[in-house]
């Protein structure tokens, strides 16, 4: 919350506590230890700006009706020198507080003083957080799921940064394992076809046009010479040729999407550097592995059962989950994706020492969450240090109809296709308009619409309108200057007060978004802030004759503009001055 809001709430706690002590000293209340009470914002501001339950929670201790306790607190409370102008009693004993003009003035002074840092807090206390998102296989173009994951992960990282965490963004490159074997096989067959060999591509291979394109690029360099090479050598050469090209395209796509990763982490380094073997050795020494049918298995069922029992689940509940063990090393000697994933998370949390690792995964990975947390426990890491944010799927909609896609055939709208068709501002903003766990329809028509129906356009227009107000007044020689507290206390209209109150909540919104891993709270705040501003603009003329009132309203406009710009900057969305 803002410093001014925090001060106001602390004033309530202090004056209520002092009022109780004063009433006790006068023998109006029993000399008992008061119970803890809370301060909250009522749903209806007509009932006050703040309310406390101090009277209700002390009814037992003081052996009096809550209403009587509330009256005694109100009678003995001194609001002199505070942000409050009056206290009222309501219902069975609620104590309601009404803010004075000075509170609203100090909110604006705080925004003006903080500038671009307004809304930042030390909630996270500098704890280190690794946010890993997108992490698409480098076997082809990135798709719509990656588009949503990119916007969500990047904006979540920004929210955490504003909330006081030390944040690093990471892309995990799956450049080892089965998907690379399938990739090299697909390239090999396409290359052989291009060289005139009659061979069919298996159903479960990669069928996208990009595979043929890479095979052709390889052939442009090497001709048909690799047809004479052993198959293993040819496949390896094709993969080594194509992977760097795909990875470079992925980096360019992320750059276009305004995402700057701190690290692109290669899975292959876990294999080559010995961390994968080291992780398996830890599991084995802990008694969490066994051999069967020539493969090495992980005791997933045992670990998860132990964790569920500790969490209070009964055996009947656990049996219904039908937990199974997992293969770590296949009979052919190759490690599974799960094995590399354990080593990777151990690298983040133990080797690199992040306080928290947050992974943004597609909802289809929900079954992987519990076993990954269990694996962390098995390698000696607190599973609560790993959080998985599951993201639901996206449907593209055009003209009210769902745009069909097929990842297998390659007839899919890729991330780059989307960014070429739709303004990046709209893509980043709209993908964060829904909480991660909800299914989402991305309306291509709405995304390019330049009306108030388009949320990002609506917010940008509010920013541009404020800039226009300021520039028009400046052209008349009426430039903004520093306001006095007395001038800012002239802002008493309901629309002015609503706008200032909403501005004061930004810090709480950002902290809430960080707590819940939900950047949608910030985009909705931006839309609502624009709405409050438009309401103010339509009811309170800025360029009035009264110089003091004009300057106060102009300062309110500047505070709103700067706050809106700060939010859009956080989301890496442009803040145009003209539209």
Overview of the structural elements:
- Strands 7-6-5-11-12 form a five-stranded parallel β-sheet, with helices on both faces. Strands 1-2-4-3 form a four-stranded antiparallel β-sheet. Strands 8-9-10 form a three-stranded antiparallel β-sheet.
- The two termini are 32 Å apart.
- The protein contains 24 helices and 15 strands.
- Helix 11 crosses helix 14 (337-351) and helix 19 runs antiparallel to helix 24 (547-570).
- With 579 residues, it is of the alpha/beta class.
- It is 52% helix and 12% strand.
Provide a count of the helices: 24
Provide the residue-averaged pLDDT.
95
Low-confidence regions: 406-410
Proportion in helices: 40-55%
Percent of residues in beta strands: 5-15%
Helix-strand makeup class? alpha/beta
Characterize the main sheet.
5 strands, parallel
Which term fits the overall shape?
Answer: flat
Number of strands: 15
| Rg, nearest Å | 30 Å
Report how far apart the termini are.
32 Å
| Biggest sheet: strand arrangement | 7-6-5-11-12
For this entry, what is the oligomeric state of its chains?
Answer: single chain
């Amino acid at each position: 919350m803002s410093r001014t809001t925090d001060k106001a709430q602390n004033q309530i706690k202090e004056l209520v506590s002092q009022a109780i002590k004063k009433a006790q000293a006068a023998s109006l209340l029993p000399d008992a230890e008061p119970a803890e009470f809370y301060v909250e914002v009522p749903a209806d501001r007509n009932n006050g700006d703040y309310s406390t339950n101090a009277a209700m929670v002390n009814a037992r201790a003081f052996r009096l009706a809550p209403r009587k306790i509330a009256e005694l607190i109100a009678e003995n409370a001194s609001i002199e020198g505070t942000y409050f102008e009056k206290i009222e009693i309501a219902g069975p004993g609620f104590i309601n507080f009404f803010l004075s003009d000075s509170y609203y003035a100090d909110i604006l002074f705080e925004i003006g003083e903080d500038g671009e840092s307004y809304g930042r807090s030390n909630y996270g206390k500098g704890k280190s957080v690794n946010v890993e998102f997108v992490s698409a296989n480098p076997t082809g173009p990135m798709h719509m799921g990656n588009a949503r994951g990119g916007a969500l992960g990047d904006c979540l990282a920004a929210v955490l940064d504003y909330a006081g965490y030390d944040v690093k963004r990471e892309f995990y490159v799956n450049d080892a394992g089965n998907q690379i074997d399938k990739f090299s096989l697909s390239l090999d067959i396409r290359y052989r076809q291009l060289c005139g060999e009659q061979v069919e591509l298996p159903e479960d291979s990669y069928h996208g046009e990009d595979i043929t394109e890479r095979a052709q690029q390889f052939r442009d360099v090497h001709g048909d010479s690799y047809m004479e090479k052993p198959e293993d050598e040819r496949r390896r050469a094709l993969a080594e040729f194509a992977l760097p090209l795909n990875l470079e395209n992925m980096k360019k796509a992320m750059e276009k999407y305004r995402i700057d990763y701190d690290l692109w982490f290669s899975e292959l380094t876990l294999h080559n550097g010995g961390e994968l073997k080291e992780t398996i050795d830890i599991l084995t020494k802990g008694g969490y592995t066994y051999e069967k049918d020539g493969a090495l298995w992980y005791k997933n069922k045992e670990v998860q059962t132990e964790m569920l029992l500790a969490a209070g689940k009964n055996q009947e509940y656990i049996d219904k989950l039908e937990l199974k063990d997992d293969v770590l090393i296949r009979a052919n000697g190759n490690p599974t994706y799960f094995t590399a994933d354990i080593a990777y998370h151990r690298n983040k949390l133990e080797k690199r020492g992040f306080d928290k690792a947050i992974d943004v995964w597609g909802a289809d990975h929900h079954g992987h969450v519990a076993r990954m947390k269990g694996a962390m426990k098995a390698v000696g890491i607190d599973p609560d240090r790993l959080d998985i944010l599951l993201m639901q799927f996206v449907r593209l909609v055009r003209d009210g109809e769902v745009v069909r896609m097929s990842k297998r055939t390659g007839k899919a709208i890729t991330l780059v296709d989307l960014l070429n068709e739709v303004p990046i501002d709209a893509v980043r903003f709209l993908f964060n308009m829904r909480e991660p766990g909800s299914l989402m329809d991305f309306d291509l028509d709405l995304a390019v619409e330049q009306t108030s129906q388009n949320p990002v356009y609506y917010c940008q227009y509010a920013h541009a309108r404020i800039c226009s107000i300021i520039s028009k007044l400046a052209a008349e020689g009426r430039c903004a200057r520093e306001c006095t507290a007395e001038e800012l206390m002239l802002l008493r209209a309901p629309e002015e007060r609503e706008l200032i109150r909403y501005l004061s909540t930004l810090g709480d919104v950002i902290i809430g978004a960080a707590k819940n891993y939900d950047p949608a709270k910030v985009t909705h705040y931006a839309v609502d802030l624009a709405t409050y501003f438009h309401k103010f603009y339509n009811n309170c003329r800025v360029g009035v004759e009264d110089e003091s009132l004009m300057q106060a309203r102009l300062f309110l406009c500047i505070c709103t503009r700067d706050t809106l710009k700060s939010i859009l900057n956080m989301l890496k969305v442009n803040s145009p001055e003209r539209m």
